Structures are given as C-alpha cells and as structure tokens.
Amino acid sequence: MLRPFVAYLRVYEPLLALGDPPDDRLREAVAGAKLRRAAIGEREQFLWLKSQAVARLLPAELADGRPAPSLLTDVLVLDPAEVPVDHPGAGPFVCPLELRARSAAALVTFLGDAAPALKNAVLDAGGVTADRARSRTKAAMVDLTTAAAHTLTTTWTVPLPWFVLVDPDERKLVLGTGQDDPARELSWRTSMSDALTRAAEAGELIEAAFGDSGPGRVLSQTRQWLESFDPDSVVELDYGGLVQLFADPILESDTTAEEVHDILEALRTGNVEELAELFSELREFWGDLAARERAN
C-alpha cells in the first residue's frame, strides 16, 4: 500500500515542554514509542477515513466532539541517535501528531477561502452549519499545547524555503529495498537555534532581492511558526511519502538542499547567471512531480 504523497516539516519538543509534569498517558506513549515515521501517513489516512465512515466532523475525536485518547498517545519520538550532534537540550524529543487540531485549522481556512457554492456543498454533506463547524473547530484547537501545531505538511512537493532551515550535510538517506519499502527515507534534522539563525539570515537576503512576497513570505511565516516552540527543540524536514516517487539514482543525486543554499550564496555575491541556472535546475527536478500531481 502506497503512503500518501505528503512531505513534513516537524518540530520535536523536549518532553517537559508538553507539560510539567507531562500527562502519565503521554509519558507511557513516549516510553513505548510505537508510532513510526514511515507509518504517519497511513495513520492519518486511517483516522480521517474512520471519521468519515461515522459522519464525524473531524478525525481523532469522539462522537460527542471530545478529543479521542489518541490526542496524547499519537506521538513521534526522536531516537537519541537522530538528535543533531552537540544539541544543547535534554530529551526525549516528542512531536505530537495533533491530527484533530490540524484538521480543524485546515477547515477554518477552507470556510474562509472556499467559494460559497463549494463551502455549502461540503457543509450540507457533513450535516452541519457554518456556525456549528466553526464552534467545533474552535474547540479542537484547544488540543494544542503551544500556539501552533508541531507539524506542517505539503503534498507532491517540498517548499524550497524549507531547505533554508537545514544544513545540506545533515541529510539522512535510507533507500531500503525499493521505492515501496516503508524504511525508505530522506530527511534532515537540525537544532531550533540553527534553523532560526538560518531563517533570519536568508530572510534578509530574499527580502532584499524579491521583496516580502513569494518565497520571502513563506520563509517569514515558517520562521514565525518555529518561534512558537521551545528553543531547545529539534526541527525535521522529511520527504515522507514523496520518496516513493523517485527511483534510487534520482533520490541519491537529489541536491535540492545544496542548490537552495547555493542560491542564497549567489544572492550574497550578486551572481545573476548562477541564480538563473540554479532556478532552472530546481524547476526541472520538481517539475516532474508537478506534472504527476496534475495527472492525478
């Protein structure tokens, strides 16, 4: 079974940042560490389909609208070997799934942005009014222990500003036995302090060159999101299910992170020719996935 074609930007906070003391159920879930990175997409898909089968507005909630027990037990725990070298904070480092709250945030955006006909069709299908939907989503946002959810997602591609946060040399590549191997992974992990420093430096360069629109806005929003969490956190950029779309040689030779940092250096030096060449290479690499998304 294919994993959803979703990439992730995650924040793993120290356990004590999620409650001092943390809830006993959370402690047990962290100690057991049953949820695996490769299974995240399937878990989210299962919870969503389950909610639709019983006509619930949001996944991972009970029939009366309260959060399901998975609120505290669906967590990713960073293995000590995966914590960046010389990281100052003490683990364990935990990333709650928070699917109910994340879905609620997406629904709020939909209610605000969707065309009236589409919005009404969705609400009618769910048997709820707009006011009721807003009330339920507001209640779901209380699930969050911080000002923001610990996970950002994107389908079929990875926003280039996300690569600004990581050091290209921090890449972890696991090819496994093929494109459908659950262990297949391409990811980067870095300390929160390093991610914020890189974001600030890159933000100045991008804003000076392109203004506060496009990549600059994405990077600024991402930086504000990161500032919502404990300064001793770990940041992870994970290709997630996208690794299923690349053959081994293509995944091995993916230099997107390096090229994004080369773009920043070209901006520093004013090398217009190199900028054009790098943008062309990135457009060619990610353009294939864009074509597949349109085909699907």
From TrEMBL:
Pfam families: DUF8083 (PF26312). Residues 5-293 form the DUF8083 domain. InterPro entries: DUF8083. This is DUF8083 domain-containing protein. It comes from Amycolatopsis rhabdoformis.
